[in-house]
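Q: C-alpha coordinates for this one, please.
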Amino acid sequence: MKKKSLLTSLVFLTVLSADSQSITGILGAFPPELVLLESEMTQKQDTVISQVRFIRGQLRGRNVVLAETGVGKVNAAITTVLMIQHFKPREIVFSGIAGGVDPALAPGDLVIGTQVSYHDFGQIDDAGMHYWATKNPFTKKDNPLKFQCDSALVSKALSVSKTLSLAKVERDNGSFVPAVKKGIIVTGDVFVSSEKTTRRLLKDLNAAATEMEGAAIAQTCYQQNIPFLIIRSLSDKADGKAKRDMDQFYDVAARNAATLVMAVIGEK
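A: Here is the predicted structure, written as C-alpha coordinates:
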Protein backbone atom coordinates (compact mmCIF):
# COMPACT_ATOMS: atom_id res chain seq x y z
CA MET A 1 0.00 0.00 0.00
CA LYS A 2 2.86 2.32 0.85
CA LYS A 3 4.57 1.55 -2.47
CA LYS A 4 1.39 2.39 -4.37
CA SER A 5 0.98 5.63 -2.42
CA LEU A 6 4.60 6.59 -3.10
CA LEU A 7 4.22 5.82 -6.82
CA THR A 8 1.05 7.91 -7.01
CA SER A 9 2.83 10.82 -5.33
CA LEU A 10 5.77 10.59 -7.72
CA VAL A 11 3.45 10.55 -10.74
CA PHE A 12 1.56 13.58 -9.38
CA LEU A 13 4.78 15.52 -8.79
CA THR A 14 6.04 14.65 -12.28
CA VAL A 15 2.80 15.87 -13.89
CA LEU A 16 2.86 19.03 -11.77
CA SER A 17 6.46 19.73 -12.75
CA ALA A 18 5.79 19.19 -16.46
CA ASP A 19 2.66 21.32 -16.26
CA SER A 20 4.51 24.20 -14.60
CA GLN A 21 7.17 24.17 -17.29
CA SER A 22 4.52 24.70 -19.98
CA ILE A 23 3.10 27.85 -18.38
CA THR A 24 3.15 31.20 -20.19
CA GLY A 25 3.40 34.19 -17.89
CA ILE A 26 1.35 37.28 -18.78
CA LEU A 27 1.94 40.68 -17.19
CA GLY A 28 0.27 44.07 -17.37
CA ALA A 29 0.70 47.26 -15.36
CA PHE A 30 -2.94 48.39 -14.92
CA PRO A 31 -6.22 46.47 -14.38
CA PRO A 32 -7.68 47.62 -17.75
CA GLU A 33 -4.68 46.05 -19.51
CA LEU A 34 -5.58 42.65 -18.04
CA VAL A 35 -9.39 42.67 -17.81
CA LEU A 36 -9.97 41.10 -21.25
CA LEU A 37 -7.28 38.48 -20.69
CA GLU A 38 -8.69 37.49 -17.31
CA SER A 39 -12.25 37.37 -18.65
CA GLU A 40 -11.17 34.90 -21.35
CA MET A 41 -9.40 32.59 -18.90
CA THR A 42 -10.96 29.36 -17.63
CA GLN A 43 -10.19 27.11 -14.65
CA LYS A 44 -8.93 30.14 -12.75
CA GLN A 45 -7.16 29.83 -9.42
CA ASP A 46 -6.05 32.83 -7.37
CA THR A 47 -2.83 32.92 -5.38
CA VAL A 48 -1.45 35.89 -3.44
CA ILE A 49 2.33 35.83 -2.96
CA SER A 50 4.10 38.67 -1.12
CA GLN A 51 1.14 41.00 -1.77
CA VAL A 52 1.01 40.21 -5.49
CA ARG A 53 -2.05 38.45 -6.94
CA PHE A 54 -1.43 35.73 -9.48
CA ILE A 55 -4.23 34.08 -11.47
CA ARG A 56 -3.47 30.68 -12.88
CA GLY A 57 -5.69 29.04 -15.49
CA GLN A 58 -6.11 28.34 -19.19
CA LEU A 59 -6.25 30.79 -22.09
CA ARG A 60 -6.68 29.76 -25.71
CA GLY A 61 -5.74 26.19 -24.81
CA ARG A 62 -2.55 27.22 -22.99
CA ASN A 63 -1.65 27.08 -19.31
CA VAL A 64 -1.06 30.66 -18.19
CA VAL A 65 -0.41 32.70 -15.07
CA LEU A 66 -1.56 36.34 -15.09
CA ALA A 67 -0.43 39.19 -12.83
CA GLU A 68 -0.72 42.96 -12.50
CA THR A 69 2.69 44.53 -11.89
CA GLY A 70 1.64 48.02 -10.94
CA VAL A 71 3.32 51.05 -12.47
CA GLY A 72 7.07 51.52 -12.70
CA LYS A 73 10.28 49.54 -12.95
CA VAL A 74 10.56 48.35 -9.35
CA ASN A 75 6.99 47.02 -9.26
CA ALA A 76 7.53 45.31 -12.61
CA ALA A 77 10.77 43.64 -11.50
CA ILE A 78 9.28 42.42 -8.19
CA THR A 79 6.29 40.82 -9.90
CA THR A 80 8.45 39.26 -12.62
CA VAL A 81 10.83 37.72 -10.08
CA LEU A 82 7.96 36.29 -8.03
CA MET A 83 6.34 34.86 -11.15
CA ILE A 84 9.57 33.18 -12.26
CA GLN A 85 10.35 31.80 -8.80
CA HIS A 86 6.92 30.39 -8.02
CA PHE A 87 5.49 29.41 -11.43
CA LYS A 88 8.58 28.81 -13.56
CA PRO A 89 7.05 30.05 -16.85
CA ARG A 90 8.68 28.99 -20.10
CA GLU A 91 8.10 32.53 -21.46
CA ILE A 92 6.71 35.88 -20.31
CA VAL A 93 4.59 38.26 -22.41
CA PHE A 94 3.68 41.81 -21.39
CA SER A 95 0.46 43.45 -22.58
CA GLY A 96 -0.14 47.15 -22.15
CA ILE A 97 -0.26 50.74 -23.36
CA ALA A 98 2.54 53.17 -24.20
CA GLY A 99 3.30 56.59 -25.56
CA GLY A 100 4.23 56.81 -29.21
CA VAL A 101 7.67 58.11 -30.24
CA ASP A 102 7.80 57.10 -33.90
CA PRO A 103 6.11 60.00 -35.76
CA ALA A 104 4.60 57.52 -38.23
CA LEU A 105 2.47 56.00 -35.46
CA ALA A 106 -0.76 57.37 -34.02
CA PRO A 107 -2.78 56.63 -30.86
CA GLY A 108 -4.27 53.14 -31.14
CA ASP A 109 -1.43 51.69 -33.23
CA LEU A 110 0.55 48.76 -31.82
CA VAL A 111 4.26 48.14 -31.36
CA ILE A 112 5.71 44.63 -31.10
CA GLY A 113 8.96 45.07 -29.22
CA THR A 114 12.10 43.80 -30.92
CA GLN A 115 14.40 45.39 -28.33
CA VAL A 116 13.75 47.03 -24.98
CA SER A 117 16.01 49.60 -23.31
CA TYR A 118 16.09 52.04 -20.39
CA HIS A 119 15.98 55.70 -21.31
CA ASP A 120 16.68 56.97 -17.79
CA PHE A 121 19.65 54.82 -16.69
CA GLY A 122 23.05 56.43 -17.04
CA GLN A 123 24.62 59.86 -16.55
CA ILE A 124 23.07 63.22 -17.26
CA ASP A 125 25.17 66.36 -17.56
CA ASP A 126 25.16 69.64 -19.45
CA ALA A 127 25.84 67.77 -22.69
CA GLY A 128 22.74 65.64 -22.23
CA MET A 129 21.93 62.03 -21.35
CA HIS A 130 24.61 59.32 -21.56
CA TYR A 131 23.01 55.86 -21.54
CA TRP A 132 24.62 53.11 -19.50
CA ALA A 133 24.19 49.35 -19.66
CA THR A 134 23.01 47.70 -16.46
CA LYS A 135 25.25 45.13 -14.81
CA ASN A 136 24.55 41.60 -13.56
CA PRO A 137 25.49 41.81 -9.86
CA PHE A 138 26.51 38.13 -9.75
CA THR A 139 28.62 37.79 -12.91
CA LYS A 140 29.75 41.46 -12.76
CA LYS A 141 29.29 41.58 -16.54
CA ASP A 142 27.44 44.30 -18.41
CA ASN A 143 24.00 43.47 -19.68
CA PRO A 144 23.09 44.53 -23.23
CA LEU A 145 22.21 48.19 -23.59
CA LYS A 146 19.12 46.94 -25.45
CA PHE A 147 17.53 43.65 -24.44
CA GLN A 148 16.40 41.47 -27.34
CA CYS A 149 12.83 40.20 -27.27
CA ASP A 150 12.53 36.52 -28.15
CA SER A 151 12.74 36.22 -31.94
CA ALA A 152 10.26 33.33 -32.14
CA LEU A 153 7.68 35.28 -30.12
CA VAL A 154 8.25 38.39 -32.25
CA SER A 155 7.74 36.31 -35.40
CA LYS A 156 4.53 34.83 -34.00
CA ALA A 157 3.19 38.25 -33.11
CA LEU A 158 3.95 39.67 -36.56
CA SER A 159 2.40 36.64 -38.25
CA VAL A 160 -0.87 36.60 -36.31
CA SER A 161 -1.24 40.39 -36.50
CA LYS A 162 -1.68 40.19 -40.29
CA THR A 163 -5.05 38.44 -40.03
CA LEU A 164 -6.14 39.61 -36.58
CA SER A 165 -9.38 41.54 -36.17
CA LEU A 166 -8.56 44.54 -33.98
CA ALA A 167 -11.00 47.16 -32.70
CA LYS A 168 -11.05 50.27 -34.87
CA VAL A 169 -9.71 53.50 -33.41
CA GLU A 170 -11.90 56.60 -33.55
CA ARG A 171 -9.65 59.60 -34.11
CA ASP A 172 -10.57 63.21 -34.91
CA ASN A 173 -10.06 62.57 -38.63
CA GLY A 174 -12.01 59.31 -38.85
CA SER A 175 -12.14 55.65 -37.94
CA PHE A 176 -9.00 53.59 -38.48
CA VAL A 177 -7.80 50.00 -38.28
CA PRO A 178 -4.70 50.13 -36.04
CA ALA A 179 -1.32 49.75 -37.67
CA VAL A 180 0.97 47.08 -36.21
CA LYS A 181 4.74 47.37 -36.50
CA LYS A 182 7.82 46.09 -34.74
CA GLY A 183 10.27 48.44 -33.07
CA ILE A 184 12.34 49.45 -30.08
CA ILE A 185 10.53 50.18 -26.82
CA VAL A 186 12.18 52.35 -24.16
CA THR A 187 11.43 52.44 -20.45
CA GLY A 188 11.77 55.01 -17.68
CA ASP A 189 10.14 55.94 -14.39
CA VAL A 190 8.47 58.99 -15.91
CA PHE A 191 5.29 59.59 -17.90
CA VAL A 192 6.58 61.29 -21.03
CA SER A 193 4.48 64.20 -22.26
CA SER A 194 7.13 66.27 -24.00
CA GLU A 195 7.84 66.65 -27.70
CA LYS A 196 11.43 67.61 -26.87
CA THR A 197 11.90 64.32 -24.99
CA THR A 198 10.30 62.20 -27.70
CA ARG A 199 12.64 63.77 -30.27
CA ARG A 200 15.57 62.82 -28.05
CA LEU A 201 14.33 59.24 -27.61
CA LEU A 202 13.87 58.90 -31.35
CA LYS A 203 17.30 60.38 -32.14
CA ASP A 204 19.32 58.66 -29.41
CA LEU A 205 17.61 55.27 -29.14
CA ASN A 206 15.57 54.96 -32.35
CA ALA A 207 12.55 54.34 -30.11
CA ALA A 208 9.10 53.56 -31.43
CA ALA A 209 7.35 53.80 -28.05
CA THR A 210 8.03 54.75 -24.44
CA GLU A 211 6.58 53.26 -21.24
CA MET A 212 7.42 52.52 -17.58
CA GLU A 213 7.88 48.75 -17.08
CA GLY A 214 9.21 46.88 -20.11
CA ALA A 215 12.99 47.13 -19.64
CA ALA A 216 12.75 46.02 -16.00
CA ILE A 217 10.87 42.90 -17.11
CA ALA A 218 13.33 42.42 -19.97
CA GLN A 219 16.37 42.69 -17.68
CA THR A 220 14.86 40.26 -15.17
CA CYS A 221 14.03 37.74 -17.88
CA TYR A 222 17.45 38.15 -19.51
CA GLN A 223 19.31 37.50 -16.26
CA GLN A 224 17.06 34.51 -15.50
CA ASN A 225 17.23 33.15 -19.07
CA ILE A 226 13.48 33.40 -19.73
CA PRO A 227 12.23 34.26 -23.25
CA PHE A 228 10.06 37.39 -23.25
CA LEU A 229 8.00 39.67 -25.47
CA ILE A 230 6.71 43.20 -24.85
CA ILE A 231 3.59 44.27 -26.76
CA ARG A 232 2.36 47.85 -26.46
CA SER A 233 -0.62 49.67 -27.94
CA LEU A 234 -0.29 53.44 -28.10
CA SER A 235 -2.61 55.52 -25.94
CA ASP A 236 -0.94 58.79 -26.92
CA LYS A 237 2.05 60.33 -28.72
CA ALA A 238 4.01 61.21 -25.54
CA ASP A 239 3.63 64.91 -26.34
CA GLY A 240 1.90 67.84 -24.69
CA LYS A 241 -1.51 66.21 -25.30
CA ALA A 242 -0.51 62.87 -23.80
CA LYS A 243 -2.75 63.06 -20.72
CA ARG A 244 -5.81 64.03 -22.73
CA ASP A 245 -5.17 61.44 -25.44
CA MET A 246 -4.58 58.73 -22.86
CA ASP A 247 -8.06 59.31 -21.44
CA GLN A 248 -9.52 59.01 -24.95
CA PHE A 249 -7.60 56.01 -26.28
CA TYR A 250 -6.73 54.01 -23.14
CA ASP A 251 -9.54 51.46 -23.37
CA VAL A 252 -9.22 50.62 -27.06
CA ALA A 253 -5.43 50.53 -26.83
CA ALA A 254 -5.46 48.17 -23.83
CA ARG A 255 -8.03 45.92 -25.48
CA ASN A 256 -6.11 45.65 -28.76
CA ALA A 257 -2.84 44.87 -26.99
CA ALA A 258 -4.59 42.09 -25.06
CA THR A 259 -6.20 40.79 -28.27
CA LEU A 260 -2.79 40.50 -29.92
CA VAL A 261 -1.30 38.79 -26.85
CA MET A 262 -4.11 36.22 -26.87
CA ALA A 263 -3.50 35.53 -30.52
CA VAL A 264 0.22 34.99 -29.85
CA ILE A 265 -0.54 32.61 -27.00
CA GLY A 266 -3.08 30.70 -29.08
CA GLU A 267 -0.60 30.22 -31.93
CA LYS A 268 0.77 26.68 -31.67
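A few notes: The chain has one domain: 2-266. The radius of gyration is 19 Å.
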